[in-house]
């Protein structure tokens, strides 16, 4: 039975074509013999230059030495990926360093083989890599065949507004051009970015996210592009950036409006020239990833105020997708409520539902925090409601932010005016800093800082509403 299985496997592998790239003739001969006995066709090459000339559509895999005479193997792999070669690459080396293995995997290698080579392992790893690639390709074809229906399973809502969004998203997913997703906070920009990646031909490659608003400004450069050992105090070893880790996948820059001006020229170069250097480094790395960006701010206004580079704006907004606020798709509210409640369980263990008055109240609410706020409201209601049937009182909606008569602001200090605006907004949002930040048009971390400095009253407003942590993220 074992012999029959081996023969069946060999018969199935007759169409495999593999390139082995190594300047060592012994390694080339060992690999060729190991694969030839299983009827795998092997093409040996001695340099990376030969490898780049030899890769073709009918090549199933590449076995690549880490140290080639004309180019570092990992750089050679990155160039292959940048040129669109998506087949599996197995790295070969005589050095047992975990750092090299990590770098190879981050650059897009399927596996890592150590010299002296085990001939059976060479065959098994190569066969496994090719079969895994073919399975991914079949799955990607299935996703493409499903088309917009796959998107609809991610995006909740079937109104005309949502159908238009999904149709646009499906077309954008088929392109490699840079995307700018716009929309208010809580409309699902992060979710849409993942959907665009999942519907694209890059779906089997990494999806990597950087939140420009969450990272300290001095760390974004290193986080995005990586750094070399000794590039700055504390850089004890070299570290690849998210752009490298993304490989031939997608890099999502969330809240790109918060990208520091000092880093924007480097991002512009990465988009225009498709290359960059790590912080403190001289080696040029190629960019293979697709860039997806998102913001809840108006980049055009930031450009007019010289707070965002105009040339970068045109680069990141080649394709645009605007996500509508919840108030413009309020007829989808029952679908969204049903979706979130199905994922929740009352402490009693019973399924949760909403009475008619509660649903009507939700429909009349302004939803400044959009779908994310709806999710938070329902999760909070399910947690604290005494019964699994939720009523109006269980929703604990924040009062509407209506404009109240105010005294003249003339002659008052700006800090005092700012403090009053923060306190009143926090009161109106029941102490929820995330909601107040959305109303004031600032990042939550900025508002936290201002609460401590402009109106330091133990983190509270003038009244009784305590400061709450950010709501659950709908992403």
Oligomer: single chain
**Whole-number count of domains:** 4
CATH superfamily of the largest domain: P-loop containing nucleotide triphosphate hydrolases
What profile does the largest beta sheet have?
5 strands, parallel
The appropriate CATH architecture of the largest domain is 3-Layer(aba) Sandwich
First and last CA, distance: 51 Å
Radius of gyration, taken over Cα atoms and rounded to an integer in Å:
27 Å
Number of helices: 21
Low-confidence stretches: 1-14, 401-406, 458-475
- Lateral strand order in the biggest sheet: 2-1-3-4-5
Explain what the structure shows.
It is a single chain. The chain is of the alpha/beta class. The protein folds into 4 domains: 140 residues, 3-Layer(aba) Sandwich (Rossmann fold), CATH 3.40.50.2300; 175 residues, P-loop containing nucleotide triphosphate hydrolases (Rossmann fold), CATH 3.40.50; 69 residues, Helicase, Ruva Protein, domain 3 (Orthogonal Bundle); 72 residues, Arc Repressor Mutant, subunit A, CATH 1.10.10. Helix 2 crosses helix 6 and helix 8 packs across helix 9. The longest helix is centred in the N-terminal third of the chain and has 28 residues. The radius of gyration is 27 Å and the shape is globular.
